[in-house]
C-alpha cells in the first residue's frame, strides 16, 4: 500500500501536534466569540484555524518551506471570502467587521501552528483574545465621549426642498453658499418629492465640519424664496 510507503511516524506526530494546537487556540478564540453570540462562533473559528494549519502543514511536508509560504499567501486571500460572508450592511450600518477580522486572525494562528511555530501561534491567540476583550471597555469609554463639531470625520448632506420651477436657481444658490463657507461639494442629487416638489441634496466632501457655521448657512438658505424646507444630515465615517 502506498500509505505504508509514505507514512512517517515522527512527521505524523508533528502533524498531530500542529492540529491539536490549532484546535486549542481556535477554541480559545472562538469561545469568546460564541459567548458574545457572534455570527462566527466557536466551531467556525476552530475549523478556520485547523483548516489553515492542515493546508500549511501538508504543503510543508510535501514540498518544504517554500511551498508552505505560497500556501500561506493563498490562506490569507482565501479567508477574505469567508470573512465577507459574515459582514452585513443595513443602510449606513455595517456589522460583522470585527468577527471577520477575528476569522482572519484565527487563520493566521492556524498557519503558525501548521509551520510548527506553536509559541507564535499561542502568542497571537493571546493578542486576539485581548483585542476582543480588554479593549472593549476602552471602546465603550471612547463612544461615550460627546462628539465635537470640528473633531468629527463624517459625511454631511445638505438638503433643500423646493418646487420644480426653482430647482436650477436654488441648486446654484446652494452650491455657491456652501463653497463660500468653505464647505466643498462632492455631489448634487435631485429627488422628486410629491407631484411638484424636488429635494436638492448636496453631499459635502468628507471632512471635519464646523456645525455652527453649517447651521448658519442652513438658516440663511431657509429664508430664501421658494425654499419649503432646509436641513442637514451627518453620517459618521465607518
Automatic annotation (TrEMBL):
Topology of this chain in the membrane: Multi-pass membrane protein
Residue ranges of domain MgtC/SapB/SrpB/YhiD N-terminal in the record: 21-139
Key words, A-Z: Cell inner membrane, Cell membrane, Membrane, Transmembrane, Transmembrane helix
Family statement drawn from the similarity comment of this UniProt entry: Belongs to the MgtC/SapB family.
Taxonomic superkingdom: Bacteria
Cell compartment(s), UniProt: Cell inner membrane; Cell membrane
Entry keyword annotation includes Transmembrane: yes
A GO term from the CC aspect: plasma membrane
Transmembrane feature ranges: 12-30, 42-59, 71-88
Entry function: Virulence factor required for growth in low Mg(2+) medium and for intramacrophage survival. May be involved in regulating membrane potential by activating Na(+)/K(+)-ATPase.
InterPro entries noted in UniProt: MgtC-like_C, MgtC/SapB/SrpB/YhiD_fam, MgtC_SapB_SrpB_YhiD_N
Main localization category: membrane
Span of domain MgtC-like C-terminal: 156-232
Transmembrane is among the record's keywords: yes
Name of the protein in question: Protein MgtC
Pfam family, one: MgtC
